Amino acid sequence: MKKNSTLVLLLCLFLMAFKVQSQENDLPEWRNMKYLSEEEMYMTVTNRGFEETAPPSGEVRFPAEYEPMQAVMIVYPLGIPLELVREMAEDCKVITVVSSNNQFFAETDFISAGVNMDNVEFLNAKTDSYWIRDFGPWYIFDGKEPAIVDNKYNRPRPNDDNLPGSFAKYWDIPMYGMNVVHTGGNMMQDGFGVGVSDDIVITESVANGITEDQVYERMKAYLGIDPYHVTIDPQGDYIAHVDCWGKFLAPDKIVLARVPKLNPRYEYYEEVADYFATTNCSWGYPYKIYRIDIPGNGIISPYTNSLILNKKVLVPMGAYSTFNEKALAVYREAMPGYEVIGIENKNAFNGWLNTDALHCRTRGVMDFDMLYIDHRDVLFGEYEWQDSMAVTSKVIAYSGAELKQDSILVYYSIDNADYQSVKMQPTENADEYVAYIKGYKKGSKVNYYVFAADESGRNRQQPMFGKLEPHSFTIEGEENIFENDIANVRMFPNPVNDILFVEMNEIVEEISVYSVDGVVVCQQTIDSGQQILSMDVASLKSGIYFIKLKTDEGDIVKHFIKK
């Protein structure tokens, strides 16, 4: 009986998969191919004349999707459920591109769905489709000012193609023309200069007379992208967009779809996964790869076509609840502290597809006044013992607001103890700060993150998960403490109860006291050239300690005994 039940269950699953596949295949070819009508399939691309400009003159940065967003752009008539509009409008502006004739209907729909209209703005413009991810503007920082980058759009949709210029006027910011055939769904970036696309960016650009080298050169000049990882398309689908199978979740994290081993595309998915698992992220170590299982065979499961919007992750749901729940669990594991929300869309005409879902129909707008932390030389792995570990970071307030100097901090925890903080100090380089982590010992594990705040009320941390998932490194080895036999140094009393006096001729800049295993237990900076110095050691436990005197002539090390 059990065997028969299993066979019935398998047969039901097969029939369900066949039904979903048949539904998608039964759609008109023009819809499966993401065209607006059958006629559009045969139309010549006659968009506006593309205008190439000189690249931005400042240092270019292309922010990541997981950085602060002030708004999200959508198109009406909608390609997304009203539930999603309501969810997005809870936290930021929803800028709806709509013709003036349709704005009343958009407002009526939004109000009836309970959308927070205080967070809704309208841009009156004509569009040909709702795939704003592909044709919408790409926002960058040119130096510390916002700007838009436009590129060649190779669909016969002239109204869509005009939209980047409409948004440049809407925000009153410059727009640069990058002569590369590209679409937003085929671009993901980490905010530190790393980008990823499928190789259709090369094939379509070359077909338009743009060489492969020029693609790489222009991605760097206009978007600040270098390195630029151009991969195969594991789906083998005509659309060849990276958001159909992968996504940056953090500078060191990528989520990738995974099909069953029997799927004919399995090896291609694994080739891409292996590539990133053996490629270093911006922080110097290989990417952490998270896999989301999808059933394949055309069954709707568009989980990587999600949207990160500030502290939310909005994930399109597929045909099977079991796969849905597992996908949400992967996002929650990878993004601690974020709210992960599944979004269903069962509309018969514009429901989710594997190559066209939530991400394709929305696009975030970076916070033009964001606070940015660029701690690039991340400490990770193992380090030999040294007196301190430097944490260096740039901190940029794009708003122009003053940084709160007392709030530029490194928070750190040694061996899972409570977090403590140390204030970062400015260096000679613009926007750069440094602090030093001390107090660890041989074998210590140190967790840390960088925090900053500015007078605009914004704050930021790196990693973005803070203490929930900090940077981490381990100390190996130990400092070799050797006593110097210097005749002109006298310490008294020795043994000592509370105050230790040091008498010497050299000018001392700093006094440090170490335990026998090389851990700094107290430290003191000397402001003047005193010949007799004092050090309060009353709080130390009984035992042998070393005192290091930093002078212009070198370090002097002596030992003393604490009673």
Architecture overview:
By secondary structure, this protein is an alpha+beta fold. It is built from ten helices and 34 strands. The strands form nine sheets. Strands 19, 21, 22, 25, 26 and 27 form a six-stranded mixed beta sheet that branches. Strands 1-5-6-7 form a four-stranded mixed beta sheet, with helices on both faces. The protein is elongated. The protein has four domains: 1-32; 33-366, L-arginine/glycine Amidinotransferase, Chain A (5-stranded Propeller), CATH 3.75.10.10; 371-476, Sandwich (Immunoglobulin-like), CATH 2.60.40.10; 490-562, Immunoglobulin-like, CATH 2.60.40.
Secondary structure: elements and pairs:
Elements: H1 2-25, H2 29-32, E1 60-61, E2 69-75, H3 82-88, E3 93-98, H4 103-112, E4 120-124, H5 132-135, E5 138-142, E6 145-152, H6 158-171, E7 175-181, E8 188-189, E9 195-198, H7 200-206, H8 212-223, E10 228-231, E11 246-250, E12 253-258, H9 266-277, E13 288-293, E14 307-309, E15 312-316, H10 321-334, E16 339-343, E17 363-366, E18 371-374, E19 381-384, E20 389-397, E21 409-414, E22 420-423, E23 425-426, E24 432-437, E25 445-453, E26 459-462, E27 471-476, E28 490-492, E29 499-503, E30 508-514, E31 520-525, E32 532-536, E33 543-551, E34 554-562
Parallel strand pairs: 2-3, 3-4, 6-7, 9-10, 12-13, 15-16, 19-27
Antiparallel strand pairs: 1-5, 2-17, 5-6, 8-9, 11-12, 14-15, 18-20, 20-24, 21-22, 21-25, 23-24, 25-26, 25-27, 28-29, 29-32, 30-31, 30-33, 33-34
Q: How much helicity do the residues have?
A: 10-25%
As for the CATH topology of the largest domain, it is: L-arginine/glycine Amidinotransferase, Chain A
CA-atom Rg in angstroms: 29 Å
Uncertain ranges: 1-25
Q: What name goes with the CATH superfamily of the largest domain?
A: L-arginine/glycine Amidinotransferase, Chain A
Mean pLDDT: 90
Protein structure class = alpha+beta
Most strands sheet: 6 strands, mixed
- In total, the number of strands is 34
Total helices: the number is 10
Total domain count: 4
CATH-derived architecture of the largest domain: 5-stranded Propeller
Give the end-to-end Cα distance, rounded to a whole number of Å.
Answer: 81 Å
Q: CATH top level of the largest domain?
A: Alpha Beta
Using the alpha-carbon principal axes, give the shape: elongated
How much of the residues is beta strand, in percent?
A: 25-35%
